[in-house]
Amino acid sequence: MNALDRFIALFAPHSALRRAQARHALRAYEATSPSRLRTIKRARFSADSDVRTAGLSLREAARWLEQNYDLVDGALDVLVRAVVGTGIIPEPLVRLRDGSLATNVNEQLTEWYATWAEAPEVTGEMDAGAVQRIKARTLFRDGEVFTQHLPGEIRTLRHLTDVPYSIELIDPEAVPIGYSDPRKRIIQGVQKNGWGRPLTYFVARIDPATGQMITEYVPVPAARMDHLKIIKRLRQTRGVTVLASAIERLEDVRDYDETERVAAKIAASMAAFIKRGTPDLYNPETTQVDEQGNRVPREHKFQAGMIFDFLESGEDIGTIDTNRPNPNLGRYRDDQLRAGSAGIGLAFSSFARNYEGNYSSRRQEANEQAPHYHILWDYFCSRSERPIWRTLVDVLLANRMLELPRDIDLSTLYAVDYSRPATPAIDRQKEVGADANALETFQDSLVDVWRRNGRNPADMWRKLADQAVKLEAISGANPSAHTSITPDPTDDAEPLADGDDESEREEAA
């Protein structure tokens, strides 16, 4: 309160109070003041409280949409294809002390990973690429996915490859959201320390006979568990589906699509009705009834050129005109899907399967969407693939399955890079030209270009070396002296006369 307000308060306290209230109102945001025409909704609870209340319902709604709405199923396919593709392949980058790549060690690691990738999962039903895709799909649809590491010899488990290491994919429902114990710092199935770091995950047992989960929880140390989750707030224990903010809109669009389809089917069926005349024209004796005295409905099959000669007195034929299909359906649907794609994190053209527009507009959409896909890919690699790689290297070292040179740099033993799904080219000629220009001006490297196009640099170097050897062998070979020259059928030269000598014939040839 300034000096003027204190002076006014001495003689007119009510006026001073109104001045203070007015000054406070000017400092506040207008959007925080509800009115008759504006109702402000607020999220007052913590992230864990919101997930505990709505997390299970969101997950079930997302699964239902995936099962019953083709666009949502396709949207999840697009996310999986953009983040994982055919599979994220590691490229080991172990180096020697002089800084050069340890080629022998990197080749060993690559071969062992290829062996392990044939059956890395405990059920043996999926290879590494399929495991990555189902993990990514579960992450996007359910909001989270769990992976348990099982290295070394385990009494009840037989590893399916020569590498004694397997992983187990755990459904989010197996770690119950409703299991909490504040005294033990257990929040939604996860026990944490005072800093909020996960210590133990409680996983429900599964009945092998029925496949149903039993309410008997097995504690799994956090060191053996990877928890991928999509979170929006700090200290959020469990994840939520990427469809969370768009579920209502997607359900409305699906209902609208179904309604329009039914209306179009009715219009295509050419339904008709009989309009009756005045009551005095109605003759009950001509009405057909069944044995129970119920009226038998009159049904007539429409045929080309049919004549309506079955009408009674005062009756007329009317047809149902629904003006279907609705010409505005596509535009309205695209507008709704454009808004929904923003919440899901998808490109609208990929979501709606609408690829209209020129090269510049489509390229701009791809440029804006690429960073989001890259963020998801980076998170998936750092929280899923890197822990798997480190465990795999540890298992190989513990079982003496790697031959390490004496001058190896041990600090780079876990160094690895990962391939990315190739970005589809909109105009191949333009984009290849841009890559070539970037290479010529030293703005990019061959390795970066290869990775951007979904190629493994190690494989590319090997292929280029093989190609160089083959080209050198071909260039050193002598062409056959008996190679015939095929005459050009378009050659309109006149034939030589019989009196021409041999030299003129050779010159003409």
UniProtKB/TrEMBL annotation:
Region listing for Disordered, in residue ranges: 475-509
Biased composition (Acidic residues): 489-509
Organism the protein comes from: Thiorhodococcus fuscus
Skewed-composition ranges (Polar residues): 477-487
Name the record gives this protein: Phage portal protein
